[in-house]
Amino acid sequence: MHRSSPMRMTPIRRISAIAAALALSFVPGRAPAQGSAPPPDDALLGTVEVDGSGNGITPLPKLAFVPLTPLSDTDRAAQAVVRHDLDLCGQYDVVPAEKLPDSSATRETVIDLAQYRAKAGAEVVVRVFAEQKGSQIEVVGEAYDTRGSAPAPAGGTLAAPVPLFRTTEIAKEAKDLRLTAHSVTDKILGALSGRPGPFVSHLVFSRRDGTWQSLRTIDPDGENVKTASPTNATIMSPVFGPGGVLYYVMSRDFAPFRIAAGPQGTFLPIDVPGSVMGVAISPEGNRAAITVMREGKSSILTSENGKLSTLTAAPLAHHPAFGPLGKVAYVGGTPVQRVHVDGQAVSPAGFMASAPTFCETTNGLWLVFTVEVAGGAELVSTDTRGGNMRRLTQRQGENRYPACSPDGRLVAFFSTTKTGQGPGLYLMPIGRPWLAKKVSSEVGLGLRWERLPSTVAPATTGAAR
Asked: What is the DSSP letter of 105?
């Protein structure tokens, strides 16, 4: 990375907050016109498989929930959240309730794992229940492995199976029940797969409201939508900072965009030439990049130790995104803008590309981005050198603004499709894109996905495996 003469930046009192502010990324609108050139043939991107069987992908293991009787309101609420999470995560085929063995199980009932395996084909059985204790609610999650299970001997009593994993999470108040249930999901996924789940988290995006554009946060399951910024300004390119504080770029009264933070829109004392259209920060927090628009052209400035210098990049560079191992991606080039990683073009030639994001998956580091096709936009993934290209969406409309989950299992994106489940926010297992599910009817601009800070995570009384 070449650095030219540093430009001056005003003194900053809270270095950590400013570093977090630089975790934004530029969100462009529609791609620039390509004159009269015909759009590229999207057949070059391949197709999305129906079920993965053509690539020898093994079927998902079946997972069953124990239906509890009687079911309290807190039991019902906690169980619904965990069941929905496990269905969304794309790691299990959750058995429909009507296919479960007849059961009148309670919290203390000995679970007949052999029956669940024989009648429902379940390889994993999960029991979730909640108990009010004073002002707090304890949510208990248990996971059982049915392999090796045996039915009760004739005339004998079934021995109580030992759970593969058990955890008790504490909701301090009733309003925290859903978050606590998400925590149970994450712990169960961690025990079963070695990688904790992504559901104690939230996403942020910008949405137009009349004249202005403001921010919303939303839980991964599509619930709990909240306004998270001023509503009387134009705001875009949000990112989560330390302690869950949101940073973004904002323009009031059509003035140049500047970096702002928090629900009140406090401008940060950063002085750069031009209008700041987006920023990004490395996962380690030691590198930052700013997209600046000046005289009709965009460029990327890098930041280190409070000084800015120009990144050597393709023309009209914007939308920087940092990944692990010091990698940086951006969009640039003319007349066709492509995604670059460490200076090398990696998106398919001929396709306008945008919005790169890194995903640390169980199969290595992937890059996911949008490409323009005739009549819309689709999501594509590659490795960080542009190889192993894979099409992730194939539907009418536009599929944009991918955001990878904190655990690398899922990609969230907005779709304007009018087919299937219709327009909205989707979660897609990155390894099984055909399992994408709509979680909300919200459609916005930009998308970021981050874990909630530990200060708001539920307490744990203990876990056993």
From this structure: B
User: Looking at this protein, which amino acid is placed at residue 63?
Assistant: L
Dihedral (Cα; 11, 230, 251, 415), 10-degree rounding:
120
Q: Is residue 154 part of a domain?
A: no
Q: What is the tens place of the pLDDT at every residue in 70-111?
A: 788 999 999 999 999 999 999 999 999 889 987 777 888 888
Q: Is the pLDDT score of 19 beyond 90? A: no
- The encoded tokens of residue 281 equal 């920060």
d(CA 143, CA 131): 18
The Cα 362–Cα 224 span in angstroms is: 29
Report whether 206 contacts 445 (CB < 8 A).
yes
Whether residues 206 and 186 share a domain: the answer is no
What's the CATH code of the domain at 312? 2.120.10.30
Q: Could you count the other beta carbons within 10 Å of the beta carbon of residue 417?
A: 18
| pLDDT tens-digit map of 202-246 | 999 999 988 999 999 999 999 999 999 999 999 999 877 767 778
3-state secondary structure of 119: helix
The answer, as to whether pTM is greater than 0.90, is no
